[in-house]
């Protein structure tokens, strides 16, 4: 790294993104994404070197230290290219295009993403991490720059031909299927997950292993639909293995991004907001499905981590915590046996060592000069298994370990923390709002709904334009970047869940209005799907994506939103749009069902059975609260609950079609069960209503 005196700022110093600001003192003459860079490349007849990453990315930091901080590499980059830096969190539309190009050209992808492209943004070379020097079959940065410089000067026609072919491939539409979409697709999706399921460790596929919460939620809902015990077993095994493994932070809580091994032992240490949100939803549904306290405990602990370490003073949520601290991946999280023992009493140390093990491998945090004597924690088994093995009760085991973990947390807080990416992103906040609202209902905890309301109110007040449109990013008082499909779809999802948790009509009204805007801005009638970026955006290609990645696809969540809002509001535009999407599912669904599990969740809701319950009260009454509490104890994923207060002038009848004409026949509460566009006679017997609903399910 250069001395501070020689660290002149480049153009990134004026940006808001923490990732871009991390590179603001590189000797590379970075440009942010924009016309200034493209115009400079055209005038100077240079290719563009595009580097995409994010602030919590370990290998992005490595590439910066090795190459972008190196004066000689920086000189070569500046002489050969116009260099552009992009934060994939801030500009997911740009990242999506060039990650797709990388996957087309190389068969793989990841971050940091390295792209060479023409001034008109057409890619002709793609890679991920590029080491400074060539090694292990990877071309080094110095050699790569010199090779591209030669090809650019001597073989320009070849470069343009490659760029044109990639662009043509990017424009290709996946096409819509002529195959009728029936309930059989759910069975096919389950069978595909069964094929790739890891029976020994849970999860899917080999290392590296990602949590994929949408797959687990689909399995839980498939079990609810069919009664297939293997679907429930797959979901439970995966959730239990993650919670006991090293991907879970046993001391401070929260999930790391993924496991570099197939047994969930060695994490990649960054923590992302969307993982906490989506996994919270999976554990909430598992708790309702099984009643097992371990899932409720994990849900509570994950939320406590988010509220403690990922929330802003204004109630919104930041994006990520870094994998690295002090220049070493995982340094903040790893321990030696001596360190833990020194902090605990003799009895605590004995029990702790019988409960937890240290994964002391080079991959567990030993990169960058650490020895193999330090590692991350994982559990030796479940609390019940361990308590039987060592001969104490599970309650006593938990009590002793709780004291030990509190001491370790206190000690860990004195370490140098990883950096945080404090951007507030609308889409990821939408996921966290949905998770908190679901947790509020599953745990009967109003603190969670209050936290969800605070985040939703922040976005409505600070990340919405005067025309009602969403911005994607907020940081240091500045809301910027026009919202993408995921911002609308994910935030609407959060608002709908928040309405169900609070019964505040303002959140449902906001969801309805944003969904209308979503259709106006992103809908493509020809393909019956949504573009990811808005009309008039400056991206090379407006893409339409249905494939789930680290988060569900925007189209899948949009379909789910439309189905739910169509049921609640009766809005014909929502019903029509959802119907068109279901009749025009993409061909890729059938060949990659495992990558479309959130779409399968939406289709599960579309196929039904679905139910709406309207509870009507003349004034606020404990009877209505008790009824809602009884309903929320059950795992009924396609049930919607509406609370109508006859003493309130909240305009609910104008917003929710099924409340119109519904009255209470006593001073208490009256319940209406609706299904299939009709409602049964009112009743006060909530137990009988639950029985009627569950008779339509095998579980």
| Count of helical regions | 27
Q: Give the end-to-end Cα distance, rounded to a whole number of Å.
A: 61 Å
Portion in helices: 40-55%
Question: Radius of gyration from the CA trace?
Answer: 26 Å
CATH topology value of the largest domain = Glycosyltransferase
**Which word captures the global form?**
globular
- Quick check: average pLDDT? 92
CATH class of the largest domain: Mainly Alpha
Total strands: 23
Strand order of the largest sheet: 1-3-2-4-5
Show unreliable segments: 1-6, 366-372
The biggest beta sheet is recorded as: 5 strands, mixed
Count of the domains? 4
Secondary-structure class: alpha+beta
CATH-derived architecture of the largest domain? Alpha/alpha barrel
Binned strand content: 5-15%
Provide structural commentary.
The chain has 4 domains: 168 residues, Glutaredoxin, CATH 3.40.30; 327 residues, Glycosyltransferase; 81 residues, no CATH class; 84 residues, Glutaredoxin, CATH 3.40.30. It contains 27 helices and 23 strands. Strand 20, helix 25 and strand 21 form a beta-alpha-beta unit. Helix 9 runs antiparallel to helix 10, helix 17 packs antiparallel against helix 18 and helix 21 packs parallel to helix 24. The termini are far apart.
């Amino acid at each position: 790294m250069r001395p501070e005196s020689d660290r002149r700022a480049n153009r990134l110093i004026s940006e808001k993104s923490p990732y871009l600001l991390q590179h603001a003192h590189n000797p590379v003459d970075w440009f942010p994404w924009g016309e200034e860079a493209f115009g400079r490349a055209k005038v100077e007849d240079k290719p563009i070197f595009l580097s995409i990453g994010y602030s919590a990315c370990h290998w992005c930091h490595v590439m910066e230290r090795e190459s972008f901080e190196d004066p000689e590499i920086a000189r070569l980059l500046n002489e050969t290219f116009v260099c552009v830096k992009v934060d994939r969190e801030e500009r997911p539309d740009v990242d999506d295009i060039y990650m797709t190009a990388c996957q087309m050209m190389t068969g793989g992808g990841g971050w940091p993403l390295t792209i060479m492209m023409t001034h008109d943004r057409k890619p002709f070379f793609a890679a991920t991490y590029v080491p400074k020097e060539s090694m292990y079959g990877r071309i080094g940065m110095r050699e790569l720059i010199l090779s591209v410089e030669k090809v650019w000067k001597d073989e320009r026609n070849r470069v343009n031909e490659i760029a044109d072919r990639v662009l043509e491939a990017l424009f290709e539409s996946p096409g819509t299927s002529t195959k009728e979409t029936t309930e059989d697709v759910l069975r096919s999706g389950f069978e595909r997950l069964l094929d790739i399921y890891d029976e020994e460790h849970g999860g899917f596929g080999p290392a590296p292993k990602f949590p994929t919460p949408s797959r687990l939620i689909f399995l839980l809902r498939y079990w609810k639909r069919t009664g297939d015990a293997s679907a429930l077993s797959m979901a439970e095994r995966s959730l239990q293995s993650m919670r006991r493994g090293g991907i879970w932070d046993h001391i401070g809580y929260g999930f790391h991004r993924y496991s570099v091994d197939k047994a969930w032992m060695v994490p990649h240490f960054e923590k992302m907001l969307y993982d906490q949100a989506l996994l919270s939803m999976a554990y909430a549904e598992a708790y309702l499905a099984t009643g097992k306290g371990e899932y409720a405990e994990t849900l509570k602990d994950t939320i406590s981590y988010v509220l403690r370490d990922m929330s802003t003073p204004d109630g919104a949520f930041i994006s990520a915590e870094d994998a690295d601290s002090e220049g070493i991946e995982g340094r903040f999280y790893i321990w030696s046996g001596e360190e833990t023992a020194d902090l605990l009493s003799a009895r605590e140390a004995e029990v702790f060592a019988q409960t937890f093990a240290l994964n002391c491998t080079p991959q567990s945090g030993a990169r960058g000069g650490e020895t193999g004597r330090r590692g991350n924690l994982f559990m030796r088994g479940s609390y019940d298994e361990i308590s039987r093995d060592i001969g104490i009760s599970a309650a006593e085991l938990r009590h002793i370990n709780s004291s030990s973990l509190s001491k370790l947390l206190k000690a860990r807080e004195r370490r140098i923390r990883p950096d945080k990416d404090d951007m507030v992103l609308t889409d990821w906040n939408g996921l966290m709002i949905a998770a908190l609202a679901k947790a509020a209902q599953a745990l009967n905890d109003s603190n969670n709904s209050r936290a969800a309301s605070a985040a939703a109110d922040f976005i409505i007040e600070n990340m919405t334009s005067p025309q009602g449109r969403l911005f994607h990013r907020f940081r240091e008082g500045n809301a910027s970047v026009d919202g993408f499909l995921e911002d609308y779809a994910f935030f609407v999802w959060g608002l709908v869940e928040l309405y169900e948790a609070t019964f505040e009509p303002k959140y449902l009204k906001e969801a309805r209005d944003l969904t209308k805007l979503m259709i106006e801005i992103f809908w493509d009638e020809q393909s019956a799907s949504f573009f990811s970026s808005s009309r008039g955006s400056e991206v090379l290609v407006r893409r339409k994506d249905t494939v789930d990645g680290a988060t569900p696809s925007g189209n899948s969540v949009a379909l789910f939103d439309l189905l739910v809002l169509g049921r609640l509001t009766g809005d014909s535009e929502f019903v029509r749009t959802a119907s068109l999407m279901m009749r025009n599912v993409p061909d890729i669904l059938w060949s990659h069902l495992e990558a479309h599990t959130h779409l399968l969740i939406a289709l599960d809701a579309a196929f039904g059975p679905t139910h709406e319950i309207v509870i009507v009260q003349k004034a606020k009454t404990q009877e209505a609260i008790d009824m809602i509490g009884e309903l929320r104890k059950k795992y009924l994923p396609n049930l919607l609950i509406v609370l109508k207060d006859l003493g309130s002038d909240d305009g609910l009848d104008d917003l929710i079609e099924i409340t119109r004409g519904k009255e209470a026949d006593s001073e208490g509460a009256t319940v209406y069960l609706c299904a299939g566009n009709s409602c049964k006679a009112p009743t006060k017997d909530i137990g009988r209503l639950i029985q009627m609903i569950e008779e339509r399910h095998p579980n």
